[in-house]
Amino acid sequence: MNISDEQLAAYLDGELSADDNAAVAAAVAADPTLARRAAAQQALRERVRRAFDRTLDEPVPEKLLDAVRGSTIIGLDAAKRRRRRPGLATTVWIAAAASIALAVLVVPRLLRLSGDEPNIVTIGPNRTAGGELAKALSLQLASEQSSSRVQLGVSFLAKSGEYCRTFITARNEGPVAGLACREQDSWRIDVIEPVGNSVGERGAYRQAASALPPLVLQAVQARIAGEPLDATGEGRARENGWKRMVDGAQNPPAD
Amino acid sequence: MDPTDANFRDELVSLLPRLRRFARALTRHSADADDLVQLAVERALTRIEQRRPGSGLLNWILGIVRNAWIDELRFRKRRDQVFLPDDAALEVGESPTERHIDLWSIQAALERLPDEQRLAVALVLVEGLSYREAAEVMEVPIGTLTSRLARGRIALESLLVQGDAPRKAPQESR
C-alpha cells in the first residue's frame, strides 16, 4: 500500500477513520522504510510540542493581563501607536535571521572545505582569529550566503558586554566550530572544537542544536545575555565594528 | 461590549499562556509574539458580539491571532521599513538551556516555511488542534489544511534534520 505524506501525518495525528488507521498501521508494520518515515515524523511532532510547551510555564507579562482586565477598551490604532517597539516587523526582518540558527545547523552538511589558511593565530596564551576567519567574523552576516569558507552561526551580546559569534571553518583535519568574542581590535577565540562525526546511527533523531559541538554550545550558554541577535541587530553590530557595549547602551533610545 | 463581562475576561486570562505559545510559533521573537497576543486580545474585547455562539473561545481567539498576524505581515511588507533592534531583544539574566536553543532552532525553521504552512503546523503540532478545528481557524477546507500541514511537516523535518545528519563518512558512501 502506498502511503502519502498526508496519510502518514493524519495517522500520526490520530485523524484517520478506524479502517484507514488499521490500513496505515499495517503498512507501517510491513515496510521498514515507511516505519522510519513514521518514526521521524513522530519524533518531530514530539519535539515541536515539547519545545513550545515550555513557554506555557513562563509568567504571563503584566501588559497582557492589563490588556484583558483593563477597563478601557482602546482601539487598534491606539494600540499600535502605543506599542513603542517595532513589533512584528522584526518578524519579516528576522526571516533572514532564520539562518542564525539554521546556519549553525546546516553548516556541517554543507562544508566541503579544505585548505590551511592561517585562520587562527596563537599569540601567547591567546588565540586570535586571522586571515579569512577574522574577515568573515567582522564582515559576514549569519544570514548571508557567502563564498568564503567560513560560516557564521549565532551572534550575540555576552554578559560581559562583548559581542561573540559562533563560526565553523575548515582546517586540514576537517571542519572546526568555535566561538569568537570581539576584543578591541581583534577576535579572541575562546573555544574551538572539531565538528565531530558524533552523528548517531542513520535515522536516529537527535537534537539539532547538538550540531554545534558541546564545548561551543556550553560556551554560548554560559556567555549569552538574552537571545541571539536577529539579522537587524547583527547588521547594526557590524556597522559599529562590534564594539563592546556599555550597559544599556546597546539599545536605541526609546523614542 | 458590556464591561461587566468578567467571565469573559477571566476566560481570556486563562487562555493567555496558550495564545502566547501559539504566537511564538508564528513569530520567533518573544516580544513580537506578546505584541501579537495583545493585539488579538484587544480585538477580541472589541468584537465580543461577533463571536458565534457555540464556537469555542480558544478557537475563536486563535482565529483572531491568525488574522492579526496576517495583517501585520502585510502591513510590514508593504511598508518595507527598517527597524531597529529593541530592548526586549535581550532578556538579561536568563541563561539558555539546550531546550531554549532547540526552541530557537525550531522557530527559525518555522520561519522558513510559507506562512500558511507555518500556521497549519502551529495549530496542529504546537496547539494540538484537530484538523477540523485548525481548518476552521484558518478558514479553509479540511483538505487544504491537510495538505499544508503535510508539506509543512516535511519541510520542517528536512530543515531540522539536515543540520542533524551531516554527511556520512566517505568510506561508507555507496
Give structural notes.
The complex is a heterodimer of chains A (255) and B (174). Chain A is an alpha+beta fold and 255 residues long. Chain A contains nine helices and six strands, in the order ααααααββαββββαα. Chain A has a four-stranded antiparallel beta sheet with strand order 3-4-5-6. Chain A has a two-stranded antiparallel ribbon with strand order 1-2. In chain A, helix 2 (18-30) crosses helix 3. The longest helix of chain A is centred in the N-terminal third of the chain and has 22 residues, at 32-53. Chain A is flat and about 70 Å long. Chain B is mostly helical and 174 residues long. Chain B folds into two domains: 6-82, Rna Polymerase Sigma Factor, Chain: A; 95-162, Winged helix-like DNA-binding domain superfamily/Winged helix DNA-binding domain (Arc Repressor Mutant, subunit A, Orthogonal Bundle). In chain B, helix 5 packs antiparallel against helix 6. The longest helix of chain B has 23 residues, at 57-79. Chain B is globular and about 50 Å long. The termini of chain B are far apart. The chains are: A alpha+beta (255), B mainly alpha (174). Chains A and B meet through helix 1, helix 3, helix 4, helix 5 and helix 6 of A and helix 1, helix 2, helix 3, helix 4 and helix 5 of B.
